[in-house]
Recover the amino acids of this structure.
């Protein structure tokens, strides 16, 4: 465990003040249209969980077979529609930007780190089938998100514990109930109430099941976290409390806290030296890493659902946290908390 106290995210993630338009994309109108080109594809794929939901993804193709990285947009954002000659933001990766359900270019309803995180898994499975020639190693999968996407990153690493070789988290919220209570201006509460279904005082577990801090014990991937000390919109307590809990659970976490950084802009007041520090963290996070391996036996918390390379477990409600004991050798799963459906992979 290395904890540095002293982010690494694309420029689009820094534009957190721009609110995304709450409309669905009509392919027949507007400036952006779905397309395929030699360098990048902007397409819709079918959700495998929800028959009525289609997910927009942007796929940047590397010059040679490469590793895979999934990118999450911010809280009020959608993906930025590319142009046919747009450059790959991560040239050494097959880069997939996912427009989660309910956002501008996808259908369905947003649900705040709920089934919308499964949309990333659908995107991953889709490119494994349709872009295999661009992939150097199917086990080499990485994830990055900042702000609202950082909240997704905190959550997704526990829902898919043996998928990501590393996860980059910039200025993310690790506890949605705490974030709700910290949002004194009500900037994000309306979405939380709509997307989760109620305020936390009515169903705290619904917020906990979406919060990465609730399921730290599931984590198998190394995490690289950066946060500004004075961040107003997402207080640094989200990173500090998560890192503390991760240390208690002996997880591999690398934390960079930027002293004096943060206003209503996550990176307000950042210095050149601090920018170099977070660029360095990004570089280390994206170096080749061994894929995570699920232990032969153990227990997992189930925050609505958990998906491994061997089996998946879905609670009857997305708003519950269950728990299972599993044994891969005996191919046995025992549900010790909650009501769930178990499926072994073929």
């Amino acid at each position: 465990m290395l904890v540095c106290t002293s982010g690494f995210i694309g420029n689009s993630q820094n534009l957190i003040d721009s609110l995304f338009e709450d409309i669905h994309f009509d392919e027949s109108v507007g400036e952006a249209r779905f397309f395929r080109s030699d360098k990048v594809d902007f397409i819709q794929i079918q959700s495998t969980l929800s028959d009525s939901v289609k997910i927009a993804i942007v796929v940047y193709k590397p010059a040679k077979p490469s590793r895979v990285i999934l990118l999450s947009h911010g809280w009020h954002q959608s993906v930025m529609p590319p142009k046919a000659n747009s450059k790959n933001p991560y040239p050494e990766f097959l880069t997939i930007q996912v427009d989660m359900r309910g956002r501008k270019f996808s259908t369905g309803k947003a649900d705040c780190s709920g089934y919308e995180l499964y949309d990333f898994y659908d995107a991953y499975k889709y490119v494994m089938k349709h872009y295999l020639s661009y992939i150097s190693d199917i086990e080499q999968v990485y994830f990055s998100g900042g702000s609202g996407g950082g909240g997704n990153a905190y959550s997704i690493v526990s829902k898919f514990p043996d998928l990501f070789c590393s996860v980059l988290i910039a200025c993310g919220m690790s506890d949605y109930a705490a974030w709700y209570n910290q949002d004194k201006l009500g900037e994000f509460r309306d979405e939380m109430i709509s997307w989760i279904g109620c305020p936390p005082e009515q169903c705290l577990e619904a917020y906990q099941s979406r919060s990465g801090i609730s399921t730290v014990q599931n984590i198998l991937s190394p995490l690289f976290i950066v946060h500004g000390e004075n961040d107003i919109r997402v207080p640094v307590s989200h990173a500090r409390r998560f890192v503390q809990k991760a240390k208690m659970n002996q997880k591999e976490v690398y934390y960079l806290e930027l002293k004096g950084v943060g206003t209503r802009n996550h990176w307000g007041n950042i210095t050149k030296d601090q920018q170099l520090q977070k660029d360095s963290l990004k570089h280390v996070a994206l170096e080749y890493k061994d894929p995570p391996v699920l232990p032969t036996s153990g227990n997992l918390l189930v925050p609505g659902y958990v998906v491994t390379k061997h089996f998946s477990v879905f609670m009857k409600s997305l708003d519950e946290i269950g728990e299972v004991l599993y044994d891969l050798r005996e191919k046995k799963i025992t549900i010790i908390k909650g009501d769930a459906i178990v499926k072994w992979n073929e």
